[in-house]
Amino acid sequence: MSVPKPRRTILAVPGSSDRFIAKARALPVDALFLDLEDAVAPAAKAEARQRIVAALKSDDGWQAGLVTVRVNGWTTPWTYLDVVEVVGAAGDRIDAVVLPKCAGPEQVVALDLLLTQVEINAGWPVGRIGLEVQIEDAPGLLRAEAIAASSPRLESLVFGPGDYMASLGMAQLSVGSQPAGYSADAFHHALMTILLAARAHGLQAIDGPFVGIRDLDGFTASARRSAALGYDGKWVVHPDQIAAGQAIYSPSEEQTERARRIVAAYDQATSQAGGAVGAIEVDHEMVDEAGVKLARVLLSRVTPSL
Fold first, then answer.
1. pLDDT tens-digit map of 147-163
2. Domains and CATH numbers, the chain
3. CA within 13 Å, CB half, 240
């Protein structure tokens, strides 16, 4: 099985802005999405499609390892044309399509089928374009496991805090911030539900945006909470958030070296030459197969850029 590309930071780029698209090309993020949804006004949707196609077909490169497009959700009148006009014209330059406000598996299946039609008509390999699905409200969260199982194109599940907060009626106006008057983490249940569904089906789990672009401490705290749970990355909405996000969702040098010691010591101890021992001590802690699994998972997240 191939190792998924990292998605430690995913930059949101309004598809209606040539300036933001041009700036995004050189930013050191793992991934970005050119947005046709919330960042684009209804009157600008059609023009934004053409801007995105032109940007994708341009010879200018992208520093991001993954370039994706967020279409509008199925409850709007724009989804079909987003896919036909943008993916149909530049799908060979798109790694994945992001589906927002997903309320159930049938919406993923519908997009999968439409992408298949586009790929067939363009002569592209069927199934190459991936899917990333945002879970953003109560109905979607209750069906997270079914959503995660709905298509072989799926690569990640993404938590959408803004619409989720509105769906539940949370007393907070800043997307991604904790509601006032509640001492625990108001997003913990949603994050864990999405994480469990993603991992059960071999998908990456991505945290949504923190919109306080001048509040780097707030962004850092938000990112650390989901990273501690096991999330692979987080959306960023401003260049100032990138460096912190890359670091938070990457193993530290100290963690990496310890994980390597654990794996090396365990491999030696369990070998015939090492005595076929099943549990050992490393750094004053008992290590058995479960501990080695943790070490291997951490090492799988070490990227060449570290």
1. 999 999 999 999 999 99
2. 9-248 (3.20.20.60), 253-300 (no CATH)
3. 11
